[in-house]
Amino acid sequence: MFNFSLMGAGRIGKMHAEIINSHPECSLKYIFDINKKFANELADKYNASVASTAEEALENNDIQVVFIASATPTHTEFIIKAAKAGKAIFCEKPIDLDINKVNQCWDEIKNLKVPIQIGFNRRFDTSHNQVQKNAHSGKIGQLEMVVITSRDPAPPSLDYLKDSGGIFRDCTIHDFDLARFILGDDPVVEVSAFGSQMVNDDIIKINDHDTTMCILKSKKGVLVHINNSRRAVYGYDQRVEVFGSKGMSISNNQTPSSVEYFNESETFSKEPILNFFIERYSQAYKDQFKDFVQSIKLNKDTNVTFKDGRNALILANAANESLNKGQNIKINYD
Amino acid sequence: MFNFSLMGAGRIGKMHAEIINSHPECSLKYIFDINKKFANELADKYNASVASTAEEALENNDIQVVFIASATPTHTEFIIKAAKAGKAIFCEKPIDLDINKVNQCWDEIKNLKVPIQIGFNRRFDTSHNQVQKNAHSGKIGQLEMVVITSRDPAPPSLDYLKDSGGIFRDCTIHDFDLARFILGDDPVVEVSAFGSQMVNDDIIKINDHDTTMCILKSKKGVLVHINNSRRAVYGYDQRVEVFGSKGMSISNNQTPSSVEYFNESETFSKEPILNFFIERYSQAYKDQFKDFVQSIKLNKDTNVTFKDGRNALILANAANESLNKGQNIKINYD
Amino acid sequence: MFNFSLMGAGRIGKMHAEIINSHPECSLKYIFDINKKFANELADKYNASVASTAEEALENNDIQVVFIASATPTHTEFIIKAAKAGKAIFCEKPIDLDINKVNQCWDEIKNLKVPIQIGFNRRFDTSHNQVQKNAHSGKIGQLEMVVITSRDPAPPSLDYLKDSGGIFRDCTIHDFDLARFILGDDPVVEVSAFGSQMVNDDIIKINDHDTTMCILKSKKGVLVHINNSRRAVYGYDQRVEVFGSKGMSISNNQTPSSVEYFNESETFSKEPILNFFIERYSQAYKDQFKDFVQSIKLNKDTNVTFKDGRNALILANAANESLNKGQNIKINYD
Amino acid sequence: MFNFSLMGAGRIGKMHAEIINSHPECSLKYIFDINKKFANELADKYNASVASTAEEALENNDIQVVFIASATPTHTEFIIKAAKAGKAIFCEKPIDLDINKVNQCWDEIKNLKVPIQIGFNRRFDTSHNQVQKNAHSGKIGQLEMVVITSRDPAPPSLDYLKDSGGIFRDCTIHDFDLARFILGDDPVVEVSAFGSQMVNDDIIKINDHDTTMCILKSKKGVLVHINNSRRAVYGYDQRVEVFGSKGMSISNNQTPSSVEYFNESETFSKEPILNFFIERYSQAYKDQFKDFVQSIKLNKDTNVTFKDGRNALILANAANESLNKGQNIKINYD
Question: Does any CB of chain C come closer than 8 Å to the CB of residue D257?
């Protein structure tokens, strides 16, 4: 039985609380949130205690695992404290928006050897995961191209956007990780990125973009395209296509039911696709957690490492640089 | 080079005239229609002559083949005269609505040994034809069930319906033939049929039906379902499903383009399906004709025989009897 | 909080135990099974008690609800005892294979006014349920035809089949109920049924069938087709199509993922469809239970009544009679 | 009636000969090819004359239209001579591989005002064309992104590749034109291109690529992605996706039939997609020609102008430059 402290009781924290609580080998013991009301509600629901300070949750002797679902700027501090207390750690993406803070965090924890997993949940989606397997099982032969389509149903508020770190570090980071996951041991070496401001005018004010396209090139020459939008009115558009010398495999969009309509103006018509990430990736979030628990139980390396979190951020930063300079950026992972 | 007389210059006659004219080994020489205006128009278009009497077209020494696309009640008379004149014959379905006339016709022509093919065009549709092959190639194992969906886009006029012979002899006869085609040498031995009057009230006045379902059973136990409607607002619904011990194959509906739509209320949506038979079965009509020409050229039996035309009518009559009596009808092919 | 006794700890009982246990307002208190090992295992897992006799489970003062998932021949006895003890009852389908026992059961309980729901889970499948709604919301206009395809992935053992009551009362009963559900207040008035023995030879020995087709006709003239097989190698084939004056809606098959394959011999290819009922109808079983709990909580009529269970059996019996006599059977619900 | 000279009797010339011949208002009079055998065969088939010199075909008083389907290096010479002789001109893509020759050609002909259309057939494909309409009809709102997938089924010979001008000017030029067609009056202003050598080793020897990705940005900020491969084993992969503020529309791949397969390892499976361009774009080639004839008949501007041919080449050259320099290229149309 693993006892957990949960850092953060907001929307994503609530979802993780339920997942932790449902796992037969896990128990949710402490909850910390700077918003005490949120922390209390969640503690009541799962019969857990509210920690009065972050440290109380992070360093408590009763717990073995810290689950970090708090605001991004708190991540590295919580990781360092939990690691120093010898806890296993699950941290939502991104580790931080600042690569220097990420590097400093790694310097602090690398010798502590605590298990740590970063929340790139999409790797665990049954369909995306199957497509990744197909890219290496021989089913599509030698991998040559990857096309990732990733569009949110509706833009978040300007308030959220201001602190988001920009679309590449907020949204595309998931797709950069997915690209890295699919490429396996073949690293991305070059990036080109384009961005536009199409969805609303406010995005210009904060110098961010809402419509973007990237091309990545791997060391072996595999080309990867990613396109993103902050708004897809038909739902949360999440597709992954892998193409190779012997075929292609696509993880296509999913609708809530299998119902089709036919009438005088349309045929084979289905409902809007699943919307939004908590619904679309419900299975992925659960399986990500099971996988994490299995890793710490068997004392194995986790399947999404600190380095994975850092490298996805490096790609996001390179995309920003490419967009600003109007040229390809060679990736430096040092 | 085969010279043709075409009997009938109505909607279906016009279509066949173009097909005959486009075939590199065929020449359209004579056209007969009781409507002289229709005959003249078609003759002008294809540089053919108008025959002043049916006999002139049927018995002319210049022609080798008679193509019968005239009104159903004229079919058997034209067949007999053409056969006696030694012509090869293509006759649109049905041979006649009256099984006695069909039998008499056969008695007259059976010893003349002229090639004759009946116009069950759907056998030649690429997709339906492939499904039939799949039913026997081992691809679906032993055939066990067949489901045929066949719905017209909109009901014809009451005038047409009055002389149509009823839905089973007018529409379902195509599906009975398709069922026989798919079953191959395994004959239908029993039929049950249901009918309703749902599309409009006039259908009741003429004691016909517009919504029907049948079950056929073959000698080997294969079960066949056919459903028909005179009205499908989304287009001409034409599907064939074959199911067996090792799988299933479906000939699905076809849209004019491959365009899909996604918006806030629908996804994966396509246009209404192809509508109507001249458009949907355009390829089938052409390939049916090529196949007929190939048969007479190589002096082989045609692939849709007089017997096929007669047996489909026997099934249609049995369906009528089943519907009237409320019981299964055993098929007697004698 | 509702306390439950569960009758039957076999495959389906185990599934229901988990569902009861997961419901926040329900508690699984007693388990009865003639197989004590099964009962003990389940009781251990959910911290429940094993009842030493059926009566102990059915009549216990601590419980408010009896969930009957035991062998079919025990159903009516358990229903009667539970009803007399004033318990709310959920009973798996079928109520019994013998209409006389069903009628006697009803005579015993009808005045006791206890809530009772029969386990026709498919009504609660998101897709089938949506199709039923579409049949009455105006979305497809006036309902005219229904086509239900229902094929099991693999035949059960001969031992199971011998006591199953035959395919119409064992399998098709679900489809008869679904047809009744879709038709709403328009009753089935006539049935025709065909059966074949295609899957294996043993089925002949026990005078059952493994491949069947039915047509039902409703009072208003709606035609319903049902086809069944005990074996579909591509998975558990579960489709429902409703057709009307303004369109069509289909509840199509579902695959475990949204992955498509393209290679040199196939395109748009997906995995085998979900298999078997516990997986395919997982959501439906849960929502069926929620709906039942909601009904008893609000003291409302249940949404699948004893009469629904009885009427589906009447249709199954009529199908048997039709198949044996080779004629349509008019339905008598008295 | 328009009389035609056809320049070039190779594979594509043969196809165009048949299209010209089938048009009711066109007559194929002269054929020129440096391969006299090819010219003779085609002339025999369509009852045309073989021109002994290019000039005889281009300047003949009997003809009104010159159709250029000869080798690319002959295009500008033939265009200039035909234009000086006052002929209407249809010229297969590309006008030339060298932008200087294209510019000189334009200087020579621009004041002659003869009708000229360039062979970007894909604009006339029913599905792609519909998608283009959808991008401007309001059906998807304001256009924001375009994704074009364009993969040949199998690589051509090294001999062909050596003279092809490289993948961007040989293949992608079609997609650059399609992008321009979809963008309408919103010009492409910037390009980034990547290329890899994945399909075979020979491509490296000639310094070409077989696997490429581009991003284009329009003046209004619309982002366009194009990906190409010289080899897609599942057929000729031709997809166009337009995405906007109110939805998305996709022109998806097409299979030769509508047949689906279901067996124990796959479901919803279709045949390989249509392959190759003569088959896939058969309808587009015909409608392109009809459109051209209509333009010259009504004395209107053609729908695919010399400038369209030139601008697509400018984009292809910019893509080459981007790939070589590793940076975005701003487009200069002067």
Answer: no
